[in-house]
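Field reference: sequence -> structure
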Amino acid sequence: ELARALEPAIEWRVGDAEDVRLPEPVDLVTIGNAFHRLDGDRVAARAWQLLRPGGALALLWTHVPWDGDEPWQAAMAGVVDRWSRPSGGDASADPLPQVLFRNGFASHERIEIPHDERWTVDDLVGFARSTSVLGDAVVGDDTAAFDAELRSVLLRISTTGRFDRSTTAALDLARSVDASASAARVVQRIRALADARRPVVVAIDGRSGGGKSTLAAEVARSLPSCSVIEGDEFYAGGSDEHWDSLSDAERAAFCIDWRRQRPVLASLRRGEPGTWYGFDWDRFDGTLATEPTTCAPAGVVILEGAYSARPELADLLDLRVLVDVPHAVRRDRCIARDGDDWHEDWFQRWRAAEDHYFGEIVPADGFDLVLRSN
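Structure field:
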């Protein structure tokens, strides 16, 4: 209520970050000193949905005032340690870039902002009491005693009641892909192909880390009726030794099981549901999921993923799109996306297979639309 009174031009809403709803997309979502306490995947996914193409998620970080080597900071830290209660630790153990990239963000940078601060005793007491580790639920009826102890400790060090420090704030800035221009081109081609008698089936193909999934999601958001199928659902499985024993041409031919994709696309093309058993990535032992996945019929069906525009599916496809992104950019994206699961040998193994596929099987001039990006 105080915030509304002070800033009546701002629309204030109270709710959970994981479930926030807004009437229209926004350009910027900010979170201050809190992302580590939230469900990172849910919040990042929700932020991506709220942002316009090219919008940004800004995560702001500062150090608590007692974090440092000054005598007054050590004294304050001692009081805080005696009175505080642990907050429970970070909600996610995964590195921040990994969380951001797997939820649709295409870039991440950290900006360090060195600056000087001057605090008063009132500032420091007020800040401490505003934290989750020293709030009313922790200090309770002993608020006056806590305030008195902290004031006494600080004023023994500085009789002026002023406390200076040099510190650094940080900004983690993540941007959603500005896929609007590319998505608009795909949507334009789809509308030109629209046929009231049956769905339009689109393949979005490209090498690993090119942004196929993000583009497919953006296209789907721009259409009133669209279903997206992830090509990785049809991974054939197999050990590293098995794949290494095959030639580049064989890896490209067998990596994704197009024989299981065909009946799914055929059903959806007829306006009927498509059902399949996806590869079990959690077990990763070559088996398929025990529960089927069903894709509802829609006016547009997108199959996204490497090898999705292969010749064996050509008669079922109305539009074949190639996403072409430089190798270095794709590799950096994959490393950030996969985090601890990144393996250079895996990337290089499939790079060779992709070289064969996009060089010999379906080169760029074999696509209906090529989208190139830096």
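Note: The CA atoms of residues 9 and 91 lie 34 Å apart.
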